[in-house]
Amino acid sequence: MKRKVYFDHNATTPIAPEVWQAMGEATANFGNPSSIHTFGREAKVALESAREKVANFIGARSSEIIFTSGGTEADNLALFGVATAFAHRGKHIIISQIEHHAVLESAHRLASQGFEITYLAPTRDGILLPEELAKVIRPDTILVSIMATNNETGTIQPIADLAIIAREKGILFHTDAVQQAGKRSINVIELGVDLLSISAHKLYGPKGVGALWVRRGVKINPVSIGGGHEQNRRAGTENFVSIIGFARVCELAAERMEADEKKFAALSEKLQAGLKEKVDDFRINGTLERRLPNTLNISFPGLDGEAIIIGLDMEGIAVASGSACTSGATEPSHVLMALGMSKREALGSIRVSFGRENTMEDVDYFLSVLPLIVKRLKALSKEIVEVK
């Protein structure tokens, strides 16, 4: 029987047993939190308790948390909410070239509505520099949106330094912290940002729930309308059971973060050492110094990353080619292209992202399988070239 190894935790994570338990208990409280009868009031109390736990996780006030359907909606709400609320001041928005598609596509939509978007380029290591941000800020700039940690390379951005540049000019700053939450501590006050997105399913919680933190006093317009839910900022009855799970997973993440980080660093170190020993030609993309220890983006020159992924999957190992939101796409990763890689190089890359259940034995198994796949694909590639 083949070993089953899941190395795609940046796409999603299994729900922690403690979270399942909390969600199961929450099903007994089926009242609508907006109802004024006893059932509704009990649900409202539980909802606000969950809101406080999520807020504590990122060092915020509970009144600043808006529950959403996930990170994508949180990003959408941040960009559209700020853009429409501050269009009278200006229509210039700055994002980076390496954002998640939830931010990129929101920016594209805003561009079609008359906003002007500047795309900040990273260094070859994937870092976004404060001095480069300062160069593109204009008098009509109303928002900067830069992700805290890249989902494909694991690169950690200097958000606090970038946010200072925006704050000095009176410009709002949003960060997509979906990949950082649960892997590296987040404190919105220390970061100095104005809006921040997180999602439960990236940190061992349920899918379909997330949050946008909005600093007190920051105005945003709602994207969905039809009710006064979430302080009139996001209409629709809250996903109560999942929110309870979200709150529980935030508590667990805070407790386990330090131990998780040490474990991921050890797994990453073992994997890199094994690659150097067993694979002739590969490259780690992005910086190794400013990176989440659970994430490695690896290029194999001349090979097709999708073929490697399929080969690994046939052996029971799950890895990715980039963002889960673009899986199945034939286009190369926009993140890797922004780092200066060619289309062919970008298409020859895979992403390994560790999780709590992974072991050293999983890494050993991966290292026993991958070199054979790489060798087979190289031989096949050589045959094709000779035939031509």
Distance between the termini: 39 Å
Derived structural class:
alpha/beta
Percent in helix? 40-55%
Radius of gyration: 22 Å
Beta-strand proportion: 5-15%
Largest sheet: 7 strands, mixed
What's the CATH architecture name of the largest domain?
A: 3-Layer(aba) Sandwich
Q: Give me the strand/helix succession.
A: EHHEHEHEHEHEHEEHHEEHEHHEH
CATH superfamily of the largest domain: Type I PLP-dependent aspartate aminotransferase-like (Major domain)
According to CATH, the fold-level topology of the largest domain is Aspartate Aminotransferase, domain 2
Please give the CATH class of the largest domain.
Answer: Alpha Beta
What is the 3D form? Answer: globular
Strand order of the largest sheet: 2-8-7-6-5-3-4
- E-strand count: 12
Count of folded domains: 2
Arithmetic mean of pLDDT: 94
Low-pLDDT residue spans? none
Tell me the number of helical segments per DSSP (H or I, 4 or more residues long). Answer: 13
